[in-house]
Amino acid sequence: MLRLIGKGLLPRPLNRPIVTLGTFDGVHLGHQAVIRQAIDWAREVEGESVILTFDQHPRAVLSGMPLPLITSLEHRLVLFERLGIDVCAVLEFNQELASVAAEPFVEEYLVRWLGVRGVLLGYDCRFGKGARGNVDLLQSLAPKLGFSVRACEQVRRGWLLPSSTAIRQAIASGHLDQAEAMLGRPFSVFGPVRSGECRGRHIGFPTANLSPPQELLPPRGVYACRVEVEGEERPAVANIGVRPTIHDQGEMLLEVHLLDFDGDLYGRKMEVRFIRRLRGEEKFPSLDALKAQIARDVQDARRILVDAKAQRLSS
Fold first, then answer.
1. What is the CA angle 260-264-235, rounded to 5?
2. The sheet that has 49-54: what strands, in order across it?
3. Which of 76, 179, 181, 186 is the most buried (most CB within 10 A)?
4. Which residues pair with 54 in a beta bridge?
């Protein structure tokens, strides 16, 4: 996947680009439907599928308030590539860009910069100053500017309507089954492994400390997970919390113990997929008691992950 970070000279002209645009936080089922339709349309015209997205969430910039993301920019880029997008163009979303009206945005960024041949929008996608840009506006501009327009219909998953807001609420409240249903995959976080205090190794359960930038975490506790590192997936147990048995007031950490693995993960990128919550965060009377509970967590996680894999393969 060609990555264009920031508006500048293209490394090469794009071939009949079919563009879809948005933040795509979470890359949920609705986003995936839009992206797959853009890919199919690009194949129809023997062109390239293009996502135009932003480095920050527009709502966070416009409100001046931080917004926990389901997926960071780097995580989204990984998910876009897995779906098969050819090109991802990333714009810096700031007050200057927010002040650009919809019509000049189309002319400057879609037509002059990317050379768009077709634009595909999600059913509720809005862009430009005051969110005036939509499918109707694009269709009014298309004949003059020389591109075609299509819209993607709303996607539902049973009674659930996938949306980034609903998924954030499900994650924050610990309803990971609902989040998974709307995402079309287990909820996950992505980031680099950083150095830690190595206390897990001292009690026989070495952990990788993950730093998912800006990404929302589920409630404190212990989780059965599947972890992907450089294309290889492994079973794991993850702990989210402040380690109350060790510290009276510790920082919030995401610690991941990979099962049947002994190697150095420091500095590598890791995606942690949450399968099921095993228990809440607890303070134990001793390190021995903590060690015994972690051993039980590992056995529970093994059983849950085997069952989940069997269910996935049979479905």
1. 30
2. 2-5, 87-91, 49-54, 18-21, 118-121, 148-151
3. 179
4. 91
**Residue 303: CA atoms inside 13 Å, Cβ hemisphere, count?**
7
Q: Measuring CA to CA, how many Å separate 171 from each of 89, 183, 188, 289?
A: 28, 11, 10, 29
What predicted TM-score, i.e. pTM, was given to this entire model? 0.92
CA of 260: how far to CAs of 120, 205, 222, 234, 264, in Å? 45, 10, 18, 9, 13
The residues pairing with 229 across neighbouring beta strands, listed in sequence order, are 232, 270
Which one-letter DSSP state was computed for residue 134? Answer: -
| Residue type for position 301 | A
Which two structure tokens, joined as six digits, stand for 27? 């890359």
Cα–Cα nearest to 184, from 315, 24, 28: 28
Q: Encoding tokens for residue 256? A: 């991941």
Domain interval for residue 118: 2-151
Q: Taking Cα atoms as reference points, which of 212, 281, 288, 218 lies closest to residue 250?
A: 281
Task: Check which CATH number belongs to the domain holding 198 and give it.
Answer: 2.40.30.30
Q: Are 256 and 210 in contact (CB under 8 A)?
A: yes
- Looking at 39-43, 75-79, 140-144, 190-194, which range is the least confident one? 190-194
| Amino acid residing at 19 | V
Query: Whole-number mean pLDDT of the chain?
Result: 92
> Nearest-CA neighbor of 33 among 163, 180, 142, 147?
163
Which pLDDT value is given to residue 248?
63
**Domains in the chain: how many in total?**
2
Token pair of 198 as six digits: 């190595």
Q: Is residue 256 part of a domain?
A: yes
**Phi (first) and psi of residue 265, to 5 degrees:** -110, 0
Q: Are strands 148-151 and 2-5 parallel, antiparallel or unpaired?
A: unpaired
**Which residue's entry shows tokens 């997929």?**
273
